[in-house]
Amino acid sequence: MIGSHKLAGILIEQTRDDTISVGIGMNVSNEPWNADPSLRDTACRLADFLPSATVETILPHILDALATAHERFERDGIGSVIDALNKKWQPRRVTLTLYGETSVSGTFQGLDANGDLLLENDIGEIFTVPHQSVQRLEESLGVHVANENT
What we know:
Elements: E1 8-16, E2 19-26, H1 55-76, H2 78-88, E3 92-98, E4 102-111, E5 117-120, E6 126-129, E7 134-144
Antiparallel strand pairs: 1-2, 3-4, 3-7, 4-5, 5-6
Helix pairs in contact: 1-2
């Protein structure tokens, strides 16, 4: 996120019990709002902030950051990664599609020490959604919840 505009996203898919695939997408020079005009007010691209940025120039930095994160995960476990991620979250309205075709919505507040998702409902109660029950997390783009840390 750059301010309230989405620059990049992560897709995590568990295709088998012992396999997780992670994909990263980033708007470098493309203009996603040309394909979907509803993204004009919610998406951005790196080229508008770093005009010299190309996939070739940023890819080594992304790969280095991923390698560092993987080493930290291997060394310190998931807890250290979760703590670092939670410090960066800006609360956002999300809808979770759960296995079994049910869904739940709330304000995403981060992850607990087990990697389960913390959601806040409309009356301010925070509840836990087990990570293994989540099939899909979708942001409500354009809706930013004020946070005193942002």
